[in-house]
DNA sequence: TAGATTGTTAATCGATTAACAATC
DNA sequence: TAGATTGTTAATCGATTAACAATC
């Protein structure tokens, strides 16, 4: 597969396609055209065909795409069949929530362990996973060549912990700490989940939506007045 | 303020600017140029000046930007001073984690209540917030004109709950359910936090990074062989 | 075969970067 | 004043959309 550099925008759409195709599969749909899929996802059919064509030819003229086949291709592109391994580092509120309800396996990640340093947490078991002391992180990561870490420690120790993880050989960090990690290493993959950034973007659009609504209301009011005046005449 | 339509890319960068300016303020930095800020954030100075100029003239030639002043402008653009109100709907693992550790007030959102329907959850108090029965949602939202809801219910009830919230007058949904809501209403603001999408994007880049690493290793190996052969000659 | 729909090339649109006059 | 740095216009780059020949 000759990979010209794929744009980030395309990559970010792939998981959405996957989700949609899963829904279609559950609903028993066997094939779908780029036109139909585009209507469902509010994308143009052109964009969908362009996106897929970055990776190969998954469709068939006059027919469209086979739902299960396409789903499998995308899953493979995303690396879901690579048996990546992962550890959870920091079992506070968010770490615990992920352990309790996030299905790592479903996305191709095998959970190898969860770690913390607080005595009231270490030793407990959550959803079948025993919380170990972080002293054991280095050994596990090196022994099992763990690929990725979910970073859920407190802000204050985020950068330090991240750098330790790198030095143990972790290749990728899923970062829930709301800290910009700024790591020295070049080829480390960091994926941030910044709750606050998401909320603030929403806040902007909410403010805009309210402003536009009141502009509309204002216009309608003035229009009504005019109508009223006309009626009086 | 004459708002030409601001692109989504710009909006998504604003919270990052805010975070960075907060860090600078804490570090006691008073002024910063677009050049310096750009280096810190890995953006071009051009882009930074373009971004800000969408909203007004916040800098001063020959000087740069005042950190606190710029911070305040961005906070205001994001609507952080609008006293938005919010409810948490669904207090499972993720809802609880947010109640326990997410600082809504810091981002300008006032938490008006948390709701669930499960008898083992309703009546409990988390971080000073009493969990109420969802039967009370309609009354509270209408009485207090609540602006936004954090949607943390289970997948199966996500769409139904979202539609109820809309019918009660909610204007915005922060969606943690990992379901594409597809609401009928036009002017509702939805902001998704899709953990799985984020993880799968990371998975793609991790796979790519591993592949590239092994290509590099392969090349180095072949090079070494050549060198060894030369040395033998 | 006729109709449908792909994969791909070309055209358009929008976002980023570069350049520079204005000015603090 | 001289140096620095903005805000903005123009140039470039990249992403999306449109069009269409290929083909199932």
At a glance:
The structure is a homodimer of 233-residue chains. The first copy, chain A, has helices spanning 8-26, 34-41, 45-53, 67-77, 93-101, 137-144, 158-168, 195-232, and strands at residues 31-32, 59-60, 64-66, 84-89, 109-116, 125-126, 129-133, 148-151, 172-175, 189-192.
Largest sheet of chain A: 7 strands, mixed
What is the radius of gyration of chain A?
Answer: 24 Å
By oligomeric state, this entry counts as: homodimer
- Please provide the count of β strands of chain A: 10
Give an overview in words.
The structure is a homodimer of 233-residue chains. Chain A is α/β, with parallel strands linked by helices and 233 residues long. Chain A is built from 8 helices and 10 strands. A 7-stranded mixed β-sheet of chain A has the order 6-7-5-4-8-9-10. Chain A has a 3-stranded antiparallel β-sheet with strand order 1-3-2. In chain A, strand 4, helix 5 and strand 5 form a beta-alpha-beta unit. Chain A is extended and about 85 Å long. At the A-B interface, helix 1, helix 5 and helix 8 of A face helix 1, helix 5 and helix 8 of B. Chain A binds a DNA duplex (24 and 24 nucleotides) through residues 7, 9-10, 33-35, 44-47, 49-50, 52-53, 57, 59-65.
